[in-house]
Amino acid sequence: MNEQLPFLIALQKVDSEIVAQRKVIDTLPARLSSSEAPLKEAESLLLRAQQSHAAIEKKKRAKEQAVEDLQEKIRKIRQRSTDIKTNKEYQAHLKEIETMEREISSTEDDLLVLMEEIDGSVKAVAEAKARVAEEARRSDIRRAELEKEIALREEALSRLVKERDSLAAKLDPSTQRLYGMVRKAGRGLAVAEAVNEVCQGCNIHIPPQLFVELKSTDELLQCPQCGRILFYVRTDKDLPQPKNSMKPAPSEEGDDE
């Protein structure tokens, strides 16, 4: 086996681990944002509950103001009663007051309904606030867990990068250049195992003679299809088989009497 090949195999393994680690790290900000979705939803529900409560309160104040205005109008009409000269004017006067009193009664009925709605909206706001508090607590826990994972993965990535630099330093310049070019062309995979005459990088058969040569040569061989650097892992079948040392048992000859 080429003396550079073990370092290439180890380097490829570390590079693959670095890529995998970085992919996970890249997903963590999105996961962090997603973990806050329940809190944002709870806050949105609280806002809607508060807006609904405020709208009902506004209607209530408007109805109360309407009652006050009608009562003030009735008071003024009654003050003018001394100026009434005819029965017809008096009847019109009473009818106007009666109309306003019916309107006051109807408005007060509306106020009772609004009061019930306000009770419900107050309860809804309180429940929404409790949910926000609970989701904030859970969000803090999820954030702490994800931040811890980010720190651990960043630490692991740092160790892998140092290990990679150490392995790369053990390669001669020409092998480093070859590895870099093949890795770039092979979308991150520069070294592939050959199993049963098949390159595991491109899953295409390699010539039988190349496979035989791969088992014994000290040269760095590449897959003729994808260009990846090939290696072969020896198995028990590659070990020399012991010869059968058992000798045939001598035949027995009977005595002629």
Topology:
Elements: H1 5-35, H2 37-79, H3 87-168, H4 173-185, E1 191-195, E2 198-199, H5 208-216, E3 229-231
Parallel strand pairs: 1-3
Antiparallel strand pairs: 1-2
Helix pairs in contact: 1-3, 2-3
Question: Strand arrangement, largest sheet?
Answer: 2-1-3
Structural class: mainly alpha
Characterize the biggest β-sheet.
Answer: 3 strands, mixed
Compressed to H and E, one letter per element, the order equals HHHHEEHE
Count of DSSP-assigned helices? 5
Q: CATH fold name of the largest domain, please?
A: Helix Hairpins
How many individual β-strands? Answer: 3
What is the global morphology?
Answer: rod-shaped
- C-alpha end-to-end distance: 68 Å
Question: What would your notes on this structure say?
Answer:
The protein is mainly alpha-helical and 257 residues long. It has two domains: 25-161, Helix Hairpins; 173-237, no CATH class. Helices cover 69% and strands 4% of the residues. It is built from five helices and three strands; from the N terminus they run ααααββαβ. The protein has a three-stranded mixed β-sheet with strand order 2-1-3. A hairpin with a 2-residue loop joins strand 1 and strand 2. The protein is rod-shaped, with a radius of gyration of 45 Å. Residues 252-257 have low confidence and may be disordered.
What can be said about this structure in brief?
With 257 residues, this protein is mainly α. It is built from five helices and three strands, in the order H-H-H-H-E-E-H-E. Strands 2-1-3 form a three-stranded mixed beta sheet.
